[in-house]
Structure formats: C-alpha cells, structure tokens
Amino acid sequence: MIIQxxxxxxWQSAALAxxxxxxxxxxxxxxxxxxxxxxxxxxHKYLPLLDKLTAALLTVTVIYLVSRIVEKVIDNAxxxxxxRYNLIxxxxxxxxxxxxxxxxxxxxxxxxxxxxSFGLLSxxxxxxxxxxxxxxxxWLYLVFRRPYQVGDRIQLAALRGDVVAIGYLDTTLAxxxxxxxxxxxxxxxMIHFPNSVVLKSDxxxxxxxxxxxIWNETALQIAYTSDLDFVEACLVDAANRDFSSHYRQAVxxxxxxxxxxxxxxxxxxxxxxxxxxxxxxTTGRRNRILRNALPALxxxxxxxxxxxxxxx
Length: 312
Prior knowledge:
By secondary structure, the chain is α+β, with helices and mostly antiparallel strands. The protein has 8 helices and 8 strands, in the order ααααααββββββαββα.
C-alpha cells in the first residue's frame, strides 16, 4: 500500500513563478523611473523591502517547482515502490530545508547572527526533543540502509505487519495476525511505532533473497504403518499444482515443494511439506494444499493411515 501523490502541480507552480518574476521586474522598472522628490520619494524606502520579498517568493516558488519535477521523474523512473517512496521523502525534506533557508535570509538581515541564533536554538531543542531527534536519525537509517521499505512484511519484536508508510518520525504497519487471529491474515488494526526502535531492535524482513516468496511448511500427522512414498507424492503434487495455478509465471526448479518426516513428541509421525509462498498468502496456500492432498490420501486408507484411537 502506497500513499498516492494527489498531483504534481507543475504548471500551477510554473505560472506562479512567472507571476513573481514579472512582479519583480515591474518593481525594478518602477524603482528606476520614479523621481526622488515629492510623494514618489516615499516609495523608495519600501522598494528594497518589496524587491527582497518578491525575490524570496520567486526563489521559494522555483524550489517548489523543481521539487515537483524531480518527484515526477522519480515516480516514473523508480521501479521498486519502496525505493520510490524513500526518494520522494528525501526530496521533500530537502525542499523544506531550502525553503527554510530562503525564509531565514529574508527575515534576518545579518545571516551570521541568524546562524548563531539558530545554533543556540538547536542546542536547546536538542535536549528537549531527544526522542523525536532519535526517530529522525532512525528515518535516515531506514532510507540509506533500507532494512525494510514500504510494501514489505516485517516482524519487529512482538509487532508484525505490512509497512504502509515510513514517516520522518514513525512507521505505520498494517498488522497481520496479532492477538485476535491465529493465522497470517491482516487484522484490520494499524500499528504506529517510532523509527528509533529500529536502532535498538532486530528487524525480520519477509522480503529476503527469494523475494517475493518465503518458505513455509505444513505438518500432517500419519501412522508409522503408512506408505511414506505415497504420502510424500500426494503432498508434493498438491503443493506444486497449487503453486502452478496461483503463481504460474514464477514456476522453476527452485519453487518445487519437498517433504520430510519427523517423529512427533507423542506417538505418531509427521509428514511435513515445505513450499514457497507469498507472505500475505500463507494461510490461503496452507488451506489449498490440505484441500488438494487430503482427498487423495483418504482414497487410499491402507497406504495413508491417520492416527486414530489406540493407534496414536
């Protein structure tokens, strides 16, 4: 899930920049043509202020226009949604910083005094806003190291879900599983946590080297007297047929299901089928495999024997 851009407003920004450019040109022409005496003389003392104001507004508008153009280029060029999202956030941050510098240069005649005042203010706010600053540093870590991106499913301590937004101070997850569900479906709840958490916690990203798949497994309890080759064939066939029908374009030798057997803690065997699956389809794929495999196993009760009664 990506937050959609409502519009770039490139033409509107260009028109506004043109208006400020024309206004600044008019002020310059008027300033040179006004006489130095009479009523016109009183306007001369306001012309430098108006000239500086229009210059600041023109610069801010041009910065905004350039940022809109850069965002459009990124939106069209970046193929990975998470990378596109992070780059746009960086562009918006740089745009804000440049605009703030322009505004500060307009408000303060002496830029050195403004820089000193800003340094003192930053020092004071640094002690008062340690948590937000740590979260902002966490955002920088997320942008450059990319432990997760928008669209990834992650697990962070007890939190698990799909990343839907990465802000300058916090990350938003669409929770999956949670305290009300026993499967991996989205719970409908949203989780917000500060970005500073990633600096001191382990992050498990489901988008690993087999992206967009992870490996999952499902266990089936069978009796020791079952035909293990037959059970294995049924489970592998069910898993591979389901993969072919739902992920046809991704079929390869690396996506073939496998089966292994292990002794249960109590008294029966477990046939465990391992298979690739998308992180958001683990519950559905498990159900489909069982629905495909169980009818074939039940048709041969002597070869696929399930524990029952005293045979457990």
